[in-house]
């Protein structure tokens, strides 16, 4: 039976899986690693860590008794948003770690852009705004703070482009990764923006000239690598793209209006559309499927499941009566479920590491408001679930203001789906029935689906039927009315508390690197 491989280079782990022509997963393996954080607000990774993890995962999958390596007809790589990209020299050797999506060191560059660039024009061209999240501000930091590295840099390669080069020997960048850089990519033209590159004083020749759709093979698997893995030489290495869009594809999002919330450590909600008006704080890029026509517009919260884990570890983890960590969740879920919407007068802002869209504030911070002696741990636990869900709706409302149509139901994937309570809160806050998959749906599967399409094994023009959708929760009229009132209060909290948050913040971003 013919098969294909999907690979996802993640922030904390890499995963590989093998699927057949029906989308059935035959084997999967993952390998973990850490993010390097040499200074507060910095986050970087050397690409060899990704490569070695990927090779280990591939070997383990190909050794699985259900997989015949010679039956593999193609592979595709999804990857984390690589921010600056990997600076490589003329021999494609990495010169500096990749400044990944969570790195916030480029705050001084953000301020320069706001003071010197016509933001209306930048947003009109790129469909995006400015923040230290975006890769173009990180590129500016490299140029200004690491001039020797910049001078030697031949290309700046997103993670999947670098991995694809090592697999195939070919240099290319997919449109989703290029668009996600922001600032220097013309969203309408599907090309680099010479106007913005000149305005931002960034070098056009350091960007790959070959831009391709995510579904397009960039080259064939190198014979030497194929031999070492037991694969067939020259099978297509498909371009792939950004993991959030890949996971959305895996969840069945193929047409405008389809939207998916991925809630794990962080939260990412995205919708497929075909046009976008910038200015609402969301991120837009070509989708990984039909990228010449469709856009993927998304927003996210930095801490979602991480906020829940923080609460349980901080307020329940040292209780001598507590058993296993899983018991804490079970113990909190039951009494929290009995509470009315609003946790009897509590609201939680989930900005435990600053916040992304639509707030875009690295110095935003979290808070509970409404606390009294009456409240107990299960009240706070429910407030945390509700606060993260309000952050989800905050992004959805921004998308509606952009004019994006949304399907009448919401698909949720990720670790949050294990909580029935959370699924019900999401249905009530968003006014939408919530569906989840029985199977594990994530970015590596999206990559495998694109590989399957390139190998003519899977038709993605048809409705995806690789998983089983289950209706988990439907909105309650009474609860939705209460949550509407609470959401209005939630939206008022950040603007009113922002000045205090900034004065309290202990990690004010440095304006420059004093070691440079």
TrEMBL record:
Transmembrane regions listed in the UniProt entry: none
Domain Carbohydrate kinase FGGY C-terminal: 261-454
UniProt KW Coiled coil keyword: no
UniProt cross-references to InterPro entries, sorted A to Z: ATPase_NBD, Carb_kinase_FGGY, Carb_kinase_FGGY_CS, FGGY_C, FGGY_Carb_Kinase, FGGY_N
Keywords: Kinase, Transferase
SUPFAM superfamilies hit by this protein: Actin-like ATPase domain (SSF53067)
Domain Carbohydrate kinase FGGY N-terminal per the UniProt entry, residue ranges: 4-249
PROSITE patterns listed in its UniProt record: FGGY_KINASES_2
Domain of life: Bacteria
Family: Belongs to the FGGY kinase family.
Annotated PANTHER family: SUGAR KINASE, XYLULOSE KINASE
Protein name, UniProt field: FGGY-family carbohydrate kinase
Organism annotation: Halomonas eurihalina
């Amino acid at each position: 039976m013919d098969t294909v491989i999907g690979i996802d280079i993640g922030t904390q782990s890499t995963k590989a899986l093998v699927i057949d022509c029906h989308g059935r997963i035959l084997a999967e393996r993952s390998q973990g690693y850490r993010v390097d954080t040499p200074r507060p607000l910095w986050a970087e990774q050397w690409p060899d860590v990704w490569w070695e993890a990927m090779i280990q995962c591939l070997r383990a999958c190909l050794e699985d008794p259900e997989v015949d390596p010679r039956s593999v007809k193609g592979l595709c790589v999804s990857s984390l948003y690589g921010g600056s990209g990997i600076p490589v020299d003329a021999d494609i050797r990495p010169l500096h770690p990749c400044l990944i999506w969570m790195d916030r060191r480029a705050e001084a560059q953000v301020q320069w852009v706001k003071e010197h660039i016509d933001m209306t024009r930048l947003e009109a061209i790129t469909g995006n705004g400015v923040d230290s999240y975006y890769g173009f501000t990180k590129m500016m930091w490299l140029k200004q703070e690491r001039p020797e590295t910049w001078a030697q840099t031949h290309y700046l390669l997103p993670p999947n482009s670098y991995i694809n080069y090592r697999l195939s020997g070919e240099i290319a960048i997919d449109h989703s990764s290029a668009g996600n850089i922001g600032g220097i990519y013309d969203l309408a033209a599907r090309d680099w923006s010479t106007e913005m590159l000149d305005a931002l004083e960034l070098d056009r020749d350091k960007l790959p000239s070959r831009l391709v759709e995510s579904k397009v093979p960039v080259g064939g698997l190198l014979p030497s690598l194929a031999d070492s893995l037991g694969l067939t030489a020259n099978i297509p290495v498909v371009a792939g793209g950004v993991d959030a869009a890949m996971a959305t594809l895996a969840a069945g999002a193929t047409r405008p209006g389809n939207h998916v919330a991925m809630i794990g450590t962080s939260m990412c909600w995205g919708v497929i559309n075909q046009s976008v008006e910038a200015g609402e704080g969301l991120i837009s890029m070509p989708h990984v499927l039909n990228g010449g026509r469709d856009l993927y517009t998304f927003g996210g919260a930095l801490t979602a499941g991480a906020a829940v884990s923080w609460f349980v570890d901080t307020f329940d983890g040292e209780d001598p009566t507590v058993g296993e960590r899983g018991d804490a969740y079970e113990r909190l879920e039951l009494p929290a479920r009995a509470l009315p919407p609003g946790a009897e007068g509590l609201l939680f802002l989930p900005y435990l590491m600053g916040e992304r869209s639509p707030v875009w504030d690295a110095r935003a911070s979290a808070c509970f408001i409404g606390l009294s002696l009456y409240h107990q741990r299960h009240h706070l636990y429910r407030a945390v679930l509700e606060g993260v869900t309000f952050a989800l709706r905050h992004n959805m409302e921004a998308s509606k203001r952009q004019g994006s149509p949304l399907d009448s139901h919401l698909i949720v994937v990720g670790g949050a789906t294990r909580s029935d309570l959370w699924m019900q809160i999401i249905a009530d806050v968003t006014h939408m029935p919530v569906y989840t998959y029985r199977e594990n749906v994530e970015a590596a599967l999206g990559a495998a689906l694109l590989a399957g399409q390139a190998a003519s094994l899977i038709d993605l023009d048809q409705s995806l039927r690789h998983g089983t959708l289950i209706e988990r929760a439907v909105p309650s009229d009474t609860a939705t009315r209460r949550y509407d009132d609470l959401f209005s209060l939630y939206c008022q909290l950040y603007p009113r508390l922002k000045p205090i948050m900034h004065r309290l913040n202990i990690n004010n971003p440095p304006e420059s690197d004093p070691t440079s």
